[in-house]
From TrEMBL:
<protein>
    <recommendedName>
        <fullName>Sugar phosphate phosphatase</fullName>
        <ecNumber>2.1.1.-</ecNumber>
        <ecNumber>3.1.3.-</ecNumber>
    </recommendedName>
</protein>
<keyword id="KW-0533">Nickel</keyword>
<keyword id="KW-0378">Hydrolase</keyword>
<comment type="function">
    <text>Metal-dependent phosphatase that shows phosphatase activity against several substrates, including fructose-1-phosphate and fructose-6-phosphate. Its preference for fructose-1-phosphate, a strong glycating agent that causes DNA damage rather than a canonical yeast metabolite, suggests a damage-control function in hexose phosphate metabolism. Has also been shown to have O-methyltransferase activity that methylates glutamate residues of target proteins to form gamma-glutamyl methyl ester residues. Possibly methylates PCNA, suggesting it is involved in the DNA damage response.</text>
</comment>
<dbReference type="GO" id="GO:0030643">
    <property type="term" value="P:intracellular phosphate ion homeostasis"/>
</dbReference>
<dbReference type="GO" id="GO:0008983">
    <property type="term" value="F:protein-glutamate O-methyltransferase activity"/>
</dbReference>
<dbReference type="InterPro" id="IPR002791">
    <property type="entry name" value="ARMT1-like_metal-bd"/>
</dbReference>
<dbReference type="GO" id="GO:0046872">
    <property type="term" value="F:metal ion binding"/>
</dbReference>
<keyword id="KW-0464">Manganese</keyword>
<dbReference type="GO" id="GO:0032259">
    <property type="term" value="P:methylation"/>
</dbReference>
<keyword id="KW-0479">Metal-binding</keyword>
<dbReference type="GO" id="GO:0005634">
    <property type="term" value="C:nucleus"/>
</dbReference>
<dbReference type="GO" id="GO:0097023">
    <property type="term" value="F:fructose 6-phosphate aldolase activity"/>
</dbReference>
<feature type="domain" description="Damage-control phosphatase ARMT1-like metal-binding">
    <location>
        <begin position="36"/>
        <end position="420"/>
    </location>
</feature>
<dbReference type="GO" id="GO:0103026">
    <property type="term" value="F:fructose-1-phosphatase activity"/>
</dbReference>
<comment type="similarity">
    <text>Belongs to the damage-control phosphatase family. Sugar phosphate phosphatase III subfamily.</text>
</comment>
<dbReference type="InterPro" id="IPR036075">
    <property type="entry name" value="ARMT-1-like_metal-bd_sf"/>
</dbReference>
Amino acid sequence: MLRSSISSNESELLDAATPRHSLLSGRFKQSFAYVTLRSRMPGIMLQVIQTLQSKQPELVQEYGEEVEKDLRVIIESVERLKRELSRDTQFTLFHGNEPDKLEWNAFLSELPHPKRSYFRACWMHAECYLYRRLYSFFENSRLLHNFDYFADLKQEDLKLSGVAMQSLAVATRGLGKNFESFSKLMRINLWSNHYEIQLSAFSHEKLSNYVDIDLMAQVAGLDKHLLINESTLVWNCLMKAKGQKQIVVEYICDNAGFEFFTDLLLSEYLLEHGLATQVRMHVKAIPWYISDVMERDVEWTVSFLMQHKQPMVSMVGHKLARMMAEQRLVLAPTTHFWTGPQPYFVMVDCNIELYRMFTGSQLAIFKGDLNYRKLLGDYIWDSAEEFITCLRGFRPCNICAMRTVKCEVICGLPEGVADHLLRVDPQWMISGNYGVIQYTDSLKCNCYLSSPPSKRNS
Ligand SMILES: O=P(O)(O)OC[C@H]1O[C@](O)(CO)[C@@H](O)[C@@H]1O
């Protein structure tokens, strides 16, 4: 079905890898974007349908039989969306109760016509649009407008990570305020982005013997695959703020589950050692890319940790809850900016409040591959291009990006490294086996923030 429907347009897709200096797109049939749109996304939609079917009895119990009608309509809508994707139809506008529909519709309407369908659009636009459409079916239902169809997967990931959490909880107690400990924690945190949900291939048995952070960092085995490690610059940036009354770190989260646990440990470390006076976590407003953290996942995680049978894990949970009660670890106000289709360099124009919030902070840590794609605009830069250039002016504060490499977007590598990797490990850009920790200083001057937009463009 998919084959024949795509093949009607197939002649317009190119049997090529994504060329340099272009946006990622399903148009390039040898790209990971194509594979994702052709088979991974339909698989995810099928998984949503199966989740709904298997949860039906539970939902009927909770909402009564009326929910069956919602379920029928939603399942039909997901199936329709799947067909639209396979036929590479044009994106349609949002017409329901979506709180961000104006922004989305403005964005969609401004897309050039040839770039307004799934396989022709920039991959980031098409993928974000699919996740956004999925949730709109629930938002517009009668009873399921708050339903998170990915919640079980996220919770399962944490439940399965008991041994790793226990080891990490022990290994991170009593860490000193020094670069070595900070850097190890950063690397463990980066590694957790590799082993997110569905990639949890790492061996818990191995970890169970290691309650020492040095060994854990080695188990992570990332060092040999850490292509760029600018954690010294991140450390220096935090050191520079020493003595300031307020040191805010913005933490733009990625996945829930075990990855989020390591985010919390890093936040705890920053707060405990006065490297930050406040860590502000930015989470997603709607179910996103399967495993992304939402506000309710934060609440669920902290309470899960508190009730954990391993005393050390439970102690960490209580400590985090205290930090939250003291407003040292806080959630940023919900915004749909993170679940929009836009690259981050447009933040100053589309969400000035958020941009202003960042300008008052010492550091923003962007976690994960999708955040990286949005920082770089889902664009194939020269692999040796400087990080600062690729941000295209998005420097409201000092910025750190930490991700394992899961798509063809990268920058800041020494000349020749990307070519070498391609020769020795052709899958290196999508395997998640390689990682980067990159950093750049903020723009020194934010004076243009106070001038009207027309002046900014002139
Ligand atoms: O959770 P992360 O690290 O943002 O990864 C999500 C990424 O993974 C992918 O599914 C590619 O594997 C992309 O869609 C996206 O960039």
